[in-house]
Amino acid sequence: MKAEKTPIxxxxxxxxxxxxxxxxxxxxxxxxxxIILADDLGYGDVGCFGNKHFNTPNIDALAGDGIRFTxxxxxxxVCSPTRAALLTGRYQQRTxxxxxxxxxxxxxxxLDLEETTFAEVLKTAGYTTALYGKWHVxxxxxxxxxxxxxxxxxxxxxxxxxxxxxxxxxxxxxxWKQDRLNPQKGYTxxxxxxxxxxxxRRNKDRPFLLYLAHEAPHYPYQGRNDPPRYIRGKGRTxxxxxxEAYKEMIEVMDEGIGRIRKAVDDAGLSANTLIFFFSDNGxxxxxxxxxxxxxxxxxxxxxxxxxxVACWPGTIKAGRISHATxxxxxxxxxxxxxxxxxxxxxxxxxxxxxxPHLTREAPIAxxxxxWGVKKMLAIRRGxxxxxxNESFTNPALYDxxxxxxxxxxxxxxxxxxxxxxxxLLKEWHAEVNKGVKKxx
Length: 440
Ligand SMILES: [Ca+2]
Prior knowledge:
Blueprint: H1 8-16, H2 20-23, E1 32-38, H3 57-64, E2 67-69, E3 72-73, H4 79-88, H5 118-123, E4 128-134, E5 152-156, E6 176-177, E7 180-181, H6 188-202, E8 208-213, E9 230-231, E10 235-236, H7 243-266, E11 273-279, H8 301-304, E12 308-311, E13 320-322, E14 326-327, H9 331-339, H10 355-360, E15 369-373, E16 376-381, E17 384-389, E18 396-399, H11 415-433
Parallel strand pairs: 1-8, 1-11, 2-13, 3-14, 4-5, 4-8
Antiparallel strand pairs: 2-12, 5-6, 6-7, 9-10, 11-12, 15-16, 16-17, 17-18
């Protein structure tokens, strides 16, 4: 493994014909970007997505003052793959991270340092960058966020920690400042918000990227005053599934989103800041995928169609609802466009720039989108989705417009489309896995 990689600004400068001088801009020329990721939050777990039981006024306000996406997708159906795609703008299969980078079996590996993350892209445009919260694409300091373009990191590198003790599932200490263990007292969700608020205050005079990766509402199901679930040296020994805690976890995260928004407003930055919120996969435990089929870990819509909202007052029209199909990997090219940096062609990006859709309501050009979850594969184009396995047998075709719950297989009615989708899926599967070293 290489300790250092070629600074991306050299690649971009060479590709785009830019000089370093032209990349140093005043703060008011480049919008701030805040990406807030929930963990295992279901499509039916948010007020503005129809939930009547959980109070999420701040997420709902982001949607009301901005845009709500009804057809936004995580690239993975579990944590690490979604994050690999979000960070790189590429299908996670290309990075070798196709499953959970688990605390038990994958402590040695992580996202290849050769991959270019959105933080590295934004660094080239003069952004100050931070991740607070969950990383989950590499345990060792060599794979730490500070090696992937983040100026600052406070949080945990595993998939989940005890919300109070910050021990991972194997009972190991997992709370970091930069690439060193640095235990901190507090409830995970509040700590993530606290660091985010402080970062906004400290960086109000320069363009910043803030990636807030919440733990909520991933298990262990713990509210602010609930007892420990993970034991030092032992790990996950008791973990009751409590709907009351689940509700509290979502509501505390929502409260934190309100504090983040207030910090942006107090700094006078609301007109120059995009806040984009979504979930990394479908729900687990007591969570709801609403009318969707399947949950976290599933190839069905419930595994990867996630609540997503974005707010940028004055730039994104308030109260919009977008039914466009989009995905987490679209955010890297979108952020690059916001920052005004050209991307090198050799990145093999799979995401597309959503900025014209966000700002001008331009349609997103028709494209196939693909998923691979365990041994299952899916392709989506327009309203149609085909699901099959890695042997490409028993394909099932659905019309999501008529049948969002994926109940009616119409492959026999539309054999030509089913065959075309199967062919595209085979080609995609071969291409993204070609020569890739599996990492998880
Ligand atoms: Ca997750």
